[in-house]
Design brief:
Layout: E1 3-7, E2 17-18, E3 21-27, E4 32-38, E5 44-45, E6 48-50, H1 57-69, E7 71-91, E8 96-111, E9 119-126, H2 137-148, E10 154-155
Parallel strand pairs: 2-8, 3-8, 7-10
Antiparallel strand pairs: 1-7, 3-6, 4-5, 4-9, 7-8
């Protein structure tokens, strides 16, 4: 399903749903962040997606990371909780979703970098290379907050 993101765009369609979504900020022993290149918009992002019924929200972060990247993680904390009514995603089926996402901190425990139907590429990316990648501003905020290692999670 095609997706178009709108961020601080006065021409954006009005949201008609909010879905609990998760992302996972995962680094390896070399302080590189796990990124996927999304197939729906071509942008680089940390792995993530919607929570399934009957699933703990942290389990969703583990599952989505495995599905999108092939990497197994253990959740170790929360980077932040992100909601912004000026950030909406319009899907080709007519859904227009307002952002609500919990970004978890994850520890790499195994697995092989493996693209999926949702990710055309999967890489460990050094922090110094982030500026050279196409990353949505809301996703870059999560990555920057993940590297900051705040004692309390970001909420806003």
């Amino acid at each position: 399903m095609a997706r178009t993101e709108y961020y601080n765009d006065p021409q954006a369609p009005k949201a008609n749903s909010i879905v609990v979504a998760v992302t996972a900020f995962v680094t390896n022993g070399e302080n590189q962040v796990l990124l996927i290149r999304r197939t729906d918009n071509g942008l680089w992002a940390v792995p993530g997606g919607a929570q399934d019924f009957g699933e703990y929200v942290a389990e969703a972060a583990v599952r989505e990371t495995k599905e999108e990247s092939g990497v197994d993680i253990e959740v170790t904390g929360i980077v932040g909780i992100y909601w912004d009514p000026k950030h909406v995603m319009a899907y080709s089926d007519g859904e227009v979703r307002q952002q609500f996402s919990i970004c978890f901190r994850g520890r790499y425990v195994g697995g092989e970098l493996t693209p999926s139907s949702e990710s055309s590429e999967v890489r460990w990316v050094p922090r110094a290379e982030l500026d050279g990648l196409l990353i949505h501003p809301s996703m870059r905020l999560r990555i920057d907050h993940g590297y900051e290692r705040r004692p309390e999670p970001y909420i806003g």
